[in-house]
């Protein structure tokens, strides 16, 4: 759609009610505009931010979504990292279209989202904000791309949003994943591609929720359908106890048929032992007996894990470190680090992981935990960059009942106490606000935590693993990070190399290709493009590129054109870290006087204040 002037946009929206608009009158956008005008009586010219919940209200709204948030967060973190470069903000919203979690892109796009109130707590229901990705996708229960001036309210015309609804194991709306960009230079096709990636991510989240919900049942996978593979849960008597939305659509199952405990064999050909052998081809049929053609049914997940032959065992202590060895692969530097970690053994030494985004800091931290004597206790992770200061404080240190307005009725233990006896992983520790650094240092020194409002401390025994992509040593020198905390964190420092630096890079590509696109092989052309690409997003980007290529490849061969490799001559320098360091230094030099520091930096006072705020820089007193 061409970009229109403000008044033209309003006139155009208003004209859909009279069926004279130049948009396809039967299109989903026109239908939504009509709903906004006729049902919701909205004004396309109205300006102003969306309704926004307070922090306490956000917490309250998030409570019933706890399971979804827990299972969706790792997937959404990966999605946000992939889309960050293209300036997308990623949100997880509840069924009422309120954003409950947000991952902002870097500056300057982040400032635009904050300015317009596109952030955690904002409500984007269609009945309030008119046609928009979240509201309209949830109203129609279908994925949608709402591109710039397809929005109902004129003011949202600078944004494009793509949204995939999330369904619970019973096929009901559970929320939605929204990605929004304010970049005018991204084409509709680019947004459509981003929507496809988002839909894939929501399918994986739905799968995780389904498996978690039916963890005591066996699960069969029924491939096919627009909504992706279907999942069926069945009990020991082979009666269907659950079916995801896609399986319901594929097989014609309803709540009624599921509640009646219908036999799996009505839909899936079975052999005498149950579902036909591993990865067997089976005939599928709908409830009405109509043949659905051939499909593959994976063996039940529980059976798969219990019947899979065990790998030959080495000695018990070597097994504990298997995951770490697998991650280190054949990279000599990493192998040396793993040997050192093994020597440290079960000593409670803090570990600081350092490396670019996507190199595997989180999975490495999990592997250290799995290889330690704490493996049977909790592994608790917090990303310090993904939350505002006030939330990190409450999340990490906990609070007593009634400690502040909006606090949960029975208080909150806090993540440090939850990690007692186990491992606490603090990701992006370089982004931890200075006030909280001081509190964390006290916990490490005294081995006790004071939840907000508590009358006495709670003793804790945690192993701390932290990670950063920043140069913490330099930040400590420049006063942007507490030096005493830095030295405490780096009991042992492990540098995780970028993918392009790994000596075993080809093996890593082969390994990830076999996991992400198991049914495909790489053509020579695809192989040389992968081998020559610098992968600024490292393992995460490689995984996503191959996953997408595995979906688009034809005839089981991934060719160069299937690889979505945006041009990158070399890894981007960390401009934000450099800018932050320059500002911190200028403030230090001028004794915290913002006017003088702004003059020295040749910035306006207002700009410097804004940067201090968005970069969460503490001004020295
Ligand atoms: N050695 C490896 N082999 C295969 N896959 C890996 C390896 N290391 C990491 N990955 C995969 O790469 C992705 C990113 O890993 P992870 O989230 O641990 O990175 P990260 O360094 O913590 O990223 P960030 O710093 O941006 O949070 C995950 O999907 C993970 O499974």
UniProtKB/TrEMBL annotation:
GO terms for biological process: phosphorelay signal transduction system; regulation of DNA-templated transcription. It comes from the Bacteria. Coiled coil: none annotated. GO terms for molecular function: ATP binding; sequence-specific DNA binding. InterPro entries: AAA+_ATPase, AAA_lid_NorR, GAF, GAF-like_dom_sf, Homeodomain-like_sf, HTH_Fis, P-loop_NTPase, Sigma_54_int. Keywords: Activator, ATP-binding, DNA-binding, Nucleotide-binding, Transcription, Transcription regulation, Two-component regulatory system. Residues 327-551 form the Sigma-54 factor interaction domain. Residues 296-316 are annotated as: Disordered. The keyword Metal-binding does not apply. The keyword ATP-binding applies. PANTHER family: TRANSCRIPTIONAL REGULATORY PROTEIN (PTHR32071:SF77). This is Transcriptional regulator of acetoin/glycerol metabolism.
């Amino acid at each position: 759609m061409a970009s229109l002037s403000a008044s033209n946009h309003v006139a155009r929206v208003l004209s859909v009610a009279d069926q004279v608009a130049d948009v396809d009158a039967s299109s989903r956008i026109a239908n939504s505009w009509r709903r906004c005008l006729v049902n919701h009586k909205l004004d396309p010219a109205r300006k102003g931010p969306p309704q926004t919940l307070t922090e306490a209200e956000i917490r309250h709204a998030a409570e019933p979504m706890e399971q979804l948030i827990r299972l969706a967060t790792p997937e959404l973190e990966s999605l946000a990292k992939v889309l960050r470069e293209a300036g997308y903000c990623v949100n997880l919203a509840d069924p009422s279209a309120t954003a409950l979690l947000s991952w902002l892109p870097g500056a300057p796009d982040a400032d635009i989202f904050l300015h317009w109130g596109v952030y955690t707590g904002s409500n984007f229901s269609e009945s309030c904000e008119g046609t928009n990705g979240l509201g309209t996708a949830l109203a129609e229960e279908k994925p949608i791309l709402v591109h710039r001036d397809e929005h109902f309210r004129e003011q949202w015309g600078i944004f494009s949003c793509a949204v995939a609804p999330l369904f619970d194991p019973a096929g009901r709306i559970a929320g939605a994943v929204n990605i929004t960009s304010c970049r005018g230079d991204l084409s509709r096709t680019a947004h459509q591609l981003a929507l496809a990636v988002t839909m894939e991510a929501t399918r994986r989240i739905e799968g995780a929720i389904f498996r978690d919900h039916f963890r005591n049942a066996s699960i069969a996978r029924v491939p096919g359908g627009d909504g992706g593979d279907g999942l069926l849960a069945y009990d020991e008597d082979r009666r269907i106890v659950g079916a995801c939305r896609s399986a319901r659509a594929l097989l014609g199952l309803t709540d009624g048929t599921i509640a009646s405990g219908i036999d799996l064999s009505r839909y899936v050909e079975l052999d005498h032992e149950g579902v036909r052998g591993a990865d067997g081809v089976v005939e599928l049929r709908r409830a009405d007996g109509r043949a659905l053609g051939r499909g593959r049914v994976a063996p039940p997940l529980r059976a798969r894990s219990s019947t899979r032959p065990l790998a030959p065992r080495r000695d018990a202590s070597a097994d504990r470190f298997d995951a770490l060895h697998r991650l280190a692969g054949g990279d000599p530097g990493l192998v040396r680090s793993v040997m050192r970690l093994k020597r440290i053994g079960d000593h409670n030494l803090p570990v600081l992981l350092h490396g670019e985004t996507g190199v595997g800091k989180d999975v490495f931290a999990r592997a250290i935990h799995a290889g330690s004597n704490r493996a049977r206790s909790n592994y608790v992770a917090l990303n310090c960059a993904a939350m505002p200061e006030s939330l990190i404080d409450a999340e990490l240190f906990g609070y007593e009942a009634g400690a502040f307005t909006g606090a949960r009725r029975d208080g909150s233990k806090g993540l440090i106490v939850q990690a007692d006896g186990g491992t606490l992983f603090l990701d992006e520790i370089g982004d931890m606000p200075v006030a909280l650094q001081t509190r964390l240092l006290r916990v490490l020194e005294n081995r006790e935590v004071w939840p907000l409002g508590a009358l006495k401390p709670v003793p804790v025994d945690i192993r701390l693993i932290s990670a950063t992509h920043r140069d913490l040593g330099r930040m400590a020198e420049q006063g942007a990070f507490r030096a005493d905390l830095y030295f405490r964190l780096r009991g042992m420092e492990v540098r995780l190399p970028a993918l392009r630096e790994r000596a075993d890079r080809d093996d890593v590509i082969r390994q990830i290709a076999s996991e992400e696109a198991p049914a495909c092989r790489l053509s020579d052309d695809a192989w040389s493009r992968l081998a020559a690409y610098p992968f600024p997003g490292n393992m995460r980007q490689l995984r996503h590129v191959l996953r997408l290529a595995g979906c688009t490849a034809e005839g089981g061969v991934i060719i160069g054109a299937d690889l979505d490799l945006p041009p990158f001559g070399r890894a981007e320098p960390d401009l934000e870290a450099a800018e932050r360091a320059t500002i911190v230094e200028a403030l230090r030099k001028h004794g915290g006087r913002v006017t003088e520091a702004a003059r020295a930096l040749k910035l306006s006072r207002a700009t410097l204040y804004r940067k201090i705020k968005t970069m969460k820089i503490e001004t020295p007193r």
